[in-house]
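Researcher: Here's my situation. A collaborator sent me these components and asked whether they could plausibly form a single complex. I don't have experimental data yet, so a predicted model of the whole assembly would be a useful starting point for our discussion.
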Amino acid sequence: MNQVTSHADRSGPVDLTCDVCIVGSGAGGAVAAATLASAGLRVVVLEAGPWAPAPTLTLQEERAMPRLYQERGGRSTADQGITVLQGRAVGGSTKVNWTTCYRTPDHVLDHWQRVHGLAHMRPDALAPWFDAVERRLGIHTWASFPPNGNNNVLQRGAQALGWEHHILRRNVSGCINSGYCGLGCPANAKQAMDVTFIQDALQAGARVLADVHIDHLTTEGERVTTAVGVSKPAPEDPAAPALPVTVRATHFISAAGAINGPALLLRSGITAGGRVGRRTFLHPVIAVVGEHAERLDPFYGAPQSVASHHFREPTGDRLGYFLEVAPMHPMLAGTAVAQHGPYVAKMLRRLPYFSGTIALGIDGFREDDHGGTVTLDGHRRPRLTYEVTAPKVAFMKQAHRTLAELQFAAGARHVYTLHRTRQVRLSSPRELDQLDALPYGTHQHTIFTAHQMGGCTMTASDGDGVVDPDHKVRGTRNLYVLDGSVLPTSLGVNPSETIYALSMRAASALAQAWT
Amino acid sequence: MDRRRFLKVSAAGAATLAVAGALGAWSTPARPTHAPPDLKALGPRTWAIVMALGPVFIGPDLTDPARLAGRVDDYLATVHPRASTEVQQGMELLENRLTNLWLVGVAKPFSHQDPAQQARTLDAWRTSEVALCATIYTALRKLIDGTFWGDPENYALTGYPGPYHLRPRTASHP
């Protein structure tokens, strides 16, 4: 069986020829690789991030964030207004996600059919693909342990307020409830791509190369001929020389995710009429912290096991949103507080008593919501901009109140917001009205995203979007996109399972066509 | 502040900051701090700025500014060179006398200010309505706070026992 290779395994230029070249090894690329290799096609997977098996994981944020996240953990929108948490390793973001799995909601599929003309996006048509990925990844309602302290706050608060809430489904097998999903599972319990579909692909003969950054795709007319890039040493080992990489293939799949994928196409001169990189959706996240009397240890235990979709419906002037929690390790917590000095230090002294609840805005469904945009900066790096428009500001304002109310209902003694220009601490539900007077939006408080979607959106009509319903990039003959960038809107749920299922569906059809 | 006014204030601030950046030569050398000779990403000048910023960003918990600055240097050496340059340009603007004259009325480089003035200056950056100030403040805060709070030496300040295998055994975490 093949093994994943890293830069350290290479002594000279890489020059390969294959049937299918896949750029990216995350939720889209890994599933595609396994499906296509199992059909007998010669598959090469190129991953910019490292191969990071469990024994190499330190569970220390200071090492894991630079090693396993995009831009050494520093990715953000161009104006620093939104922190972007996105994985960069064999397995992509599945290596560091918090394992929450949902099928694409029926009402989202209905919207895609009605508004984007995607007639094949029907629950019954997608069900077999969801069934298949759920079997392979062990996705199940997770009741092996009670919710950790942080999730228990969400459960308790929602229960007290009569809000809809539920136990989450997770892709884990033998989870030890450590709480380190975001730093790479130390027990290989998370059924991330590197321990599942990548292994299936290797078993079926695929070659998987880590540490390979693809700069661009070379085209001849409407055909892509070559992926051109470089094999790079780990940044900690700058003395090792980089090596050129060239991969020729009959078919190419971009699976580099919703930010790097559009950037790859743009560097290759593929713009689909200027639509590549447009309609990027983020599920923008705001957070509220509750300080409780009892120790919650929000850094231990499964990071996410409870959610509430009580507020998912939008109103005329604001987005809908859903509620989850975020694990709180010191670095993540320290950078989330948009202040400095003794104020931060005083807060963090209470870290074990904190609960971090989050609200995720459901973007992309309004007619006037065009999302963010990925372009290239002067150094050919992706540059993400995202305007927090009035309906998003309205969501952020209301969601702060929702989360504060939830925290008090769950017994919080104090509730903190993460504003930049104000230091906000509430000590009673009677003080909730204070939140109405605060400013909301970009640079007013911490905003982050862990779900990046769109940028190479799928549409039915030729004059719109970037890929057709078969995932083929318009204007090309042999280039496909199989990752979260094809989503025409956000999802209102965590996106990994949607990407797995859409990728398996598309790759199965391509395997039939190509063999 | 409504959006139109915010944009106007931002535009005026951005123009001032652009002038300040262009007049880099008007800036005084940062307070000498005996930068180590083997810096990887920072220069002696930006090293001195980080040495000055650390105690203000972190507060009294920072007992070893040189350790923090060294870890910032280590981290910046591993990011894209352009990203390192951009964040150091942000440091230079925060150090710049003209910027500080405009923002807080004190024509002194940040590293030459006394601690009370430094606290006021950084607070002015924190609360500024100018988008570029917010961008620079946020980038520097995430860099310095992330470096400090991610340092295992500082876990004890937060009550975090450390990675899972170091957890105290309790009913919740047997």
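Model: Some features of this prediction you could bring to your collaborator: The first strand of chain A starts at residue 14 and ends at 23. Residues 149-172+285-362+389-446 of chain A form one domain.
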